[in-house]
Amino acid sequence: MANIEIRTSQLPIASTLIGTDKVLVIKSGVTSIADVNTVNTAAFVGKSTNNLPEGNSNLYFTSTRVSDKVQQMLQAGTGISFAVNPSAQTITISASSDVKSVNTKVGYVVLTTDDISEGTSKYFSDERVDDRVANLLEAGSNVSISYNDSLNKLTINSTGNVRSVNTLSGDVVLTTDNISQGSTNKYYSSTLFDTSFSTKSTTNLSEGTNLYFTQGRVIASPLTGFTNGSDVEITITDTILQAFGKTQTQLPQQKIV
């Protein structure tokens, strides 16, 4: 590059510079580009960004540029639509579906029964159940039903004569194990039998096929099996038939027919 020398007296007055003018001030003793100073402050008196041309990278702010950038950024999701009005410089965001809120809630709505007013379909309550059960139940035979609404109590009683048998209820089947022994009708036991039997005699026992002894029966008894015995004395161990047999032998002239 050729060296160009311009004397200070030849520089234009700073106040007469326009936006397209370029001024380079060289200090005394400049030996390299690093020694180049900035334009004198006086050159910018009365100037603004209106006097500085826009480059390619650092752009000036404009509403149009912001609007265009916002439109690029915004994406319509499910149920959302955008309406851009360039002349009014506005962007309207609308929900395109029919539902905009649920029970005054918006966004990701999660409802419970606490958020929904009761209609003809009623919510559960203890009082409603109590009243419903009281209306459903009817007293049948030997049964009475009493409902205390203030205490929420439903009492069912049996009104028949027998409510339990020996503390048992339902379909009762009793055995002697369920019935205590009274003072008159006693259960069998060996001790009771022995005690009672000791007070009895043949007088208390009816005669069966085994007959009781009587003198008349003895006299009337036939001598079945009688035979003559040996000619010996009668002993105390002899039976009646043996005694008669011995006697018959000793008295040969007499015959027992």
Description:
By secondary structure, the protein is an alpha+beta fold. It is 18% helix and 9% strand. It has five helices and four strands. The strands form two sheets. It has a two-stranded antiparallel ribbon with strand order 1-2. Strands 3-4 form a two-stranded antiparallel ribbon. The longest helix has 11 residues, at 63-73. The mean pLDDT is 81.
Quick summary of this structure?
The chain is α+β, with helices and mostly antiparallel strands and 257 residues long. Among the domains are: 8-51, no CATH class; 220-250, no CATH class. Helices cover 18% and strands 9% of the residues.
How are the elements arranged and paired?
Layout: H1 63-73, E1 80-85, E2 90-95, H2 126-136, E3 143-148, E4 153-158, H3 190-197, H4 215-220, H5 240-250
Antiparallel strand pairs: 1-2, 3-4
Radius of gyration: 70 Å
- Strand residue content: 5-15%
What summary fits the major beta sheet?
2 strands, antiparallel
Number of strands: 4
* Anisotropy-based shape: rod-shaped
Helical amount: 10-25%
Spatial ordering of strands, largest sheet:
1-2
Structural class: alpha+beta
The low-confidence runs, each spanning 5 or more residues with pLDDT under 50, are: none
Count of runs of 4 or more consecutive helical residues: 5
Overall pLDDT score: 81
Spell the H/E element sequence: HEEHEEHHH
What's the N-to-C terminus distance? 196 Å
